[in-house]
Amino acid sequence: MTAYDYRQDFPLLRENKTVYIDNAATAQRPDCVLEAEKHFYETANANPLRGFYPLSLAATEQYEEARKTVQKFIHAKSSKEIIFTRNTTESLNLVAYSYGLSNLREGDEIVVSIMEHHSNLLPWQMVARQTGAVLKFLECTQEGTLPDEVLEAAITEKTKLVAVAQVSNVLGCVNPVEKIVKLAHEKGAVVVVDAAQSAPHMPVDVTALDVDFLAFSGHKLMGPMGIGVLYGKEELLEKMPPFLTGGEMISSVTREGATYAKLPHKFEAGTVNAAGAAGLAAAIRYVEKIGFDTIMAKEEALTKRAMERLKKVPHLHILGDEAPENHTGIVAFTIEGVHPHDVSEILSSDGIDVRAGHHCAQPLLEYLGVHNATRASFMFYNTPEEVNAFVESTAQIRRRMGYGE
What we know:
By secondary structure, the chain is an alpha/beta fold. It has 2 domains: about 35-285, Aspartate Aminotransferase, domain 2 (3-Layer(aba) Sandwich), CATH 3.40.640.10; about 290-400, Aspartate Aminotransferase, domain 1, CATH 3.90.1150.10. The chain has helices at about 10-15, 30-45, 55-75, 90-105, 120-130, 150-155, 175-185, 205-210, 235-240, 275-290, 290-310, 340-350, 360-370, 385-395, 395-400; strands at about 20, 80-85, 110-115, 135-140, 160-165, 190-195, 215, 230, 250-255, 260, 315-320, 330-335, 350-355, 355, 375.
């Protein structure tokens, strides 16, 4: 039997011959996701949660079923712990504004890793400025590991919140979330996990991890843009004030004030992205149909193939660990004498799509001693032939830039 060509499930990949390996930025959408959004608008296009007529009730049903799908996907205890947002960034800002500003005080410490995407750094810088809390960094090794002694030294009795990515969007390394949660909870701190790069590529179990908050985006999981998820423990969410106020997040309103709706609607002001939620649920079902065992095996094989070949390219340096299995589909690299924007442009001329720049992780790149890097990021629907084309094109870049090699 020949291996199934997953590219056939994706309209853009069927129609476009581009080698798309910028999946850490956004993934492609399979037919089933596009059909789920279309189905919502064709069969239930009304405002969810607001009407008692059949169309509105159908919209509400699809929206709440999507919430239950997400709940089961990340193993949350209750669907009330699932808040729909626009993306990971909004989810993390929600925690910063609603939990951080309400619970942190002058002298408290917020611990973040140096590997954080700006979305899991800037909100905590804001909280520190406004509350007088102190921001501390977990500094990783050049390979991207967080040694036990670093964790134990940084997380102290003063620590009230730890923010960490489960997977680095530059190095691809998997951070020791379980260990961080255990240390933080022993000190009475809460843990906020950015799962934007992990949820599409590996099982995420919020109950087993015992995380307090966890965020991810639909678009990196092959779902629609404009839909994201925040998981929060129910007891924490109950005590938090709303992030946004307006329609639908209230129980009643008077001239003097308002009574807020119960979870999860307290945090979902205004007309919700119900079609996006339906699309996200379809993406999750698609992932579950394939299975993470298959997804992880395929992506590790592609990463290994790329790294083995890239290591043979003169003047090319891979960021992070030498072991492909520690890159989670992400390979970031530099080429001596060539700016990553030029690398990206040359690859693009060969029909290969990669990301170049600081990847919204400037503190990490500065810490590693580079200003910018090129990043290739693989999904299970990529092929060995695409990896070969990428490496062959990359190997010619210095020559094409006039270096003669």
